[in-house]
Amino acid sequence: MIKGFVIRPMRLDDLDEVMEIERAVFPMPWSLSSYRYELTQNDKGYYLVARLKGEKAEGLLLGYGGFWLVQDEAHICTLAVRPGWRRKGLGELILISLLDWAVALGANVATLEVRISNRPAQKLYSKYGFKIVGRRKRYYANQEDALIMTAYGLTSPPFQGMLRERRKEIRSKLSRLKEER
């Protein structure tokens, strides 16, 4: 999709690096056994990773994301970027990739929960058409509320047009990033 980066389905051999990021970015990380379950037993779970592309092999795992597909709804259950690589466009790349995959599997709606204090994530999701549709009181282990955000009409021409524009923007941004490194 973007030169210098590889987006592909998550595999069991990715989990050591996934867990490294998981522990670094989430106060209550998922367990290794949860990810193993998701990859081997949950037929409704879809997970991907973003890696640097090396000359001959894949490089460092930079981030990951996943969703559960229930009928025509993709519930985005995780999205994380390695510290030091945040705010560079990788979260957007992962989100676009998740939305594309969900649409390819038949989703027309995407939903997620986000911490009420996580303004950067809320801003990102809003940029992609997610609207606040509810609130889950004391949703997180620290009793923080979650906002429920939903995007409708993923397959509609306007939504797909917006995604095409965002893909171009993120391709340009990440191409510059790869050149700088």
Oligomer: single chain
Radius of gyration: 16 Å
CATH superfamily: Gcn5-related N-acetyltransferase (GNAT)
What's the architecture in CATH terms? 3-Layer(aba) Sandwich
CATH class: Alpha Beta
Strand content: 25-35%
Q: Return the domain count.
A: 1
Shape: globular
How far is it from the N-terminal to the C-terminal residue, by CA?
A: 19 Å
Unreliable spans are none
Strand order of the largest sheet: 1-2-3-4-5-7-6
- Number of helical elements: 5
Keywords:
7 strands; seven-stranded mixed β-sheet; 38% helix; alpha+beta; Aminopeptidase; 181 residues; single chain; 5 helices
Structure notes:
- There is one protein chain.
- This protein is α+β, with helices and mostly antiparallel strands.
- It has a single domain, classed as Gcn5-related N-acetyltransferase (GNAT) (Aminopeptidase).
- It has five helices and seven strands.
- The chain has helices spanning 15-25, 32-40, 90-104, 119-127, 157-180; strands at residues 5-9, 45-53, 58-70, 73-81, 109-115, 131-136, 146-152.
- A seven-stranded mixed β-sheet has the order 1-2-3-4-5-7-6, with helices on both faces.
- Strand 2 and strand 3 (58-70) form a beta hairpin.
- Helix 3 packs antiparallel against helix 5.
- The longest helix is centred in the last third of the chain and has 24 residues, at 157-180.
- The radius of gyration is 16 Å and the shape is globular.
- The protein starts with a strand and ends with a helix.
- The relative contact order is 0.15.
- The mean pLDDT is 92.
